[in-house]
Request: fold
Amino acid sequence: MTVVGNPAVTGVGRPMMGGRRISLTWVGAVPFLGYVAIFLFLPAAIIVAGAFASEGGLTLSNFANLSRPYIVSAIVGSVILSAVTAVAGAVLGALLTYAIATGNPRGTFRRVVTSACGVLAQFGGVTLAFAFIAAIGPASAVYIYLSQHHIDYYASGYWLYDLRGLEVIYLYFQIPLMVLVFLPAVDGIKPQWREATDSLGGSSWTYWRYVAGPLLAPAFLGSMLLLFANALSAYATAAALINQGGPILPLQISNAITSEVGLHEPGFAKAQAVVLILIVAIVSVLYAVLQRRTARWLQ
Amino acid sequence: MTASVETTPRAGVEVRLEDLTRRYAGVTALDGLSLTMAPGELVALLGPSGCGKTTALRLLAGLEEADGGRVVIAGKDVTNVPANKREIGMVFQAYSLFPHMTAMQNVEFGMQLHDVDAPERRKRAGEMLDLVGLSGHTHKYAVQLSGGQQQRVALARALAIEPKVLLLDEPLSALDAKVRSRLRDEIRRVQLEVGITTLFVTHDQEEALAIADRVGVMNAGHIEQLGPPTAIYSRPATPFVAEFVGLTNRLAGVVKGGEVEVRGTRLPLVKPDSTEGPAIALVRPEAVSVVSDGDMSPGPLTGSVISTVFLGATSRVSVDLGDVTVLAQLPTSAVGAITAGTKVRLSLRTDPVLIARDEKAATEA
Amino acid sequence: MSRSRRAKLQVFRVVTFVLFGAFFAGPIWFMFEFSTRGIGENSPRTLDAWKAIATYPDLVAGIVASLELAVITSIGVLVVLVPTMVWVRLRLPRLRRVIESISLLPLTIPAIVLVVGFSPMYQWLGTNFSDSILTLSLAYAILVLPYAYRALDAGLAAIDVKTLSEAARSLGASWPVVMWRVIVPNISSALLNAALLSVALVLGEYTIANNLLYPNLQVEIVSVARTNAGTSIAVAVASLLFAFVLLVALSFVGGQRGGRRRTRERLVQTFGRDFSGGTR
Reply:
């Protein structure tokens, strides 16, 4: 049945406005979009706007306050911690990835190990901190046993409870994350390239130097960047482990929210958050660029 | 588009595979395979998947180690020499090229590994790419080249280091049909021009018959027949070869007195001393002729045409004899008015035939 | 590959797996060890630390709260996401990339950053509506969003939503019936996936709860640790075991169609790129 003429008669039940139809189908997306607007975009807006706000109005004083020594040292501490665990995690993770990739691609062992990496990459925070305290802390069986045999690895201080301890503990999730992110690239290396290098007279060294190395370099660097951003954003493990001081930026942010200071300077935490998210965003962009290069060669 | 190469065509070297065996996981991939390749010869190893042809090639290349036997290149026993010291050139079925290098860089790579200096490398790589007809594509990466072009670069790369043997592992199998026949002829042209001893592995009989000096038909780890393409095709030595290469009619018959009686016709045997009794005669379609006039009374060789397939100079006619379908291949001019449904009478040329005993004699083609 | 090269490779693999295996299994093993210690040297293993859990009312409250949060969050996310994703597939295909990008956004925003924005919101919420810990589920839904989205996306991609719903509608089904009796049963494993991932995440969450000053499970574990390390580690081990059981269940649930490989890929996808830092 065709309805000719008056457009207001078509589409029973649909409101008309100036001849154009407003589709009710958009309503279906409202709950999701509304929810996300309130609980994702609103906090983001609060952070960005609040970073520039103070009692009087718009200001850059919150950002200026970032030059306070304890903030600067926290940023430096964060960067160093993230860089160290990114590099160490990348190198160690690459070794583990290679060991996994050279096994049977459809075997059970590989499936189990990859799933384990999936779990471990998420494993963090409080439980991880306590696991290490139980494993190598001052009350641990390992420490007690070794110190009974005159090996006191806390002789120069309880390094487990500061940045040095974090550097070790973070590896627990950095290495599995590296495996998860780097493994697809390593899988993309075709056996024919090794065999071609062999047939052309190459050795293991020349293979890695001229073929596999250059091919995997973008993926390796990209994964390392991901690890860097991951460590930079981590909060819970450090919070559970370090009781005073704030040697890394996330802890400083936490102080700024929950402390007295925070009440007087509401924009301060927000400015710090902006700095953190900025670094993470830059790293993400670099990662995306490197990913594209990897995909071109190793897909 | 072929420039003649600066190098003088080298006389190739002799390559011998002696009694090679290879087993893995309880499966015997190669069962005492022996093959001698004359200098400059192109030998094709032809067979179904799993017959061991690729294993033989990989043992020759040194990419795998034999459980028994020897590999001798130019008189030197290289069985215990690793792949990178055997002076071989190899082209793979797929993923031949290094994706992060241009065509030129790919071709130069082998020379780089041999410490050839840059200007010499560049010159020779240019010549090689010329030889395979890709002089305009030197700065392209693998993703920018078609499958056929990639394989040409792979060929140039393999030859650039002046290897003693050229090994091709199903180089055309991953390509489109159109590209395949052109590239096949290109490979043969280059091989002849350079004069290098070459082993070419394939499962496509047309390829093998078209370009090889000799063809080795392989089955289950050993060579069933080794000879020039014409011999393989018209004088197959075993039922497997007869059925793997070309088309074959399987007709039930009885062996008696040095001949086999098939549907009323007596045909001589390739092996006259075959044991007597029921057997399957293997008859080539070209040995079957078809007439549509004359005496059409019912008999063992009369039936009706199912279809005719026009193949150009020849045509293939399939005829339903009631209990079996027979393929005949005739010059198209002889087909005349024969179409589907026409009543015809067949006659079998009295060429010697092979017989098979088993219903399941030949393996998959 | 030549025999000598293969042999060297195998040695490398064995050594690597043993060393890394020890590094990763060690701390977990020692958590068990620590939490089952008796008092005094050479005393036998005991579950006293575990039994003591019940004697910490705050701890028990934290466990209960986290469990409730886990349930509320996962149900809530599914209730919002599933109809939206189905609707977008059926009626608003152009919105699909937008929804996907938004849903994956929380992966790139650290939780410690998010909570800075949540803080004033929750202060307002606390004074004007409710300061119950259960309001955390509103924030947790955002954290959980990327994982739930990916799981549901995989499940919906495997069935032809359009055809199924049109068939049902042509038979006279109303939209609620289409959703509940046609679509949902066919994505049951994806739903379960999404729910399990959400539960695992919520149980392990510390950052947001701690900075908004709500005493959830992980927060309580830390505070109990100050007085009784053994008990807090016992709870930590328990939550770890629980998460592990969930993920094993996940791998079986995903095992129906497409098999374990798809689940592994899903796990890789899901866990591969995340620095929201919620549980770290």
Residues 1-14 of chain A have pLDDT under 50 and may be disordered. The CA atoms of residues 63 and 251 of chain A lie 17 Å apart. Chain A has 13 helices and two strands. The two ends of chain A are 53 Å apart (CA to CA).
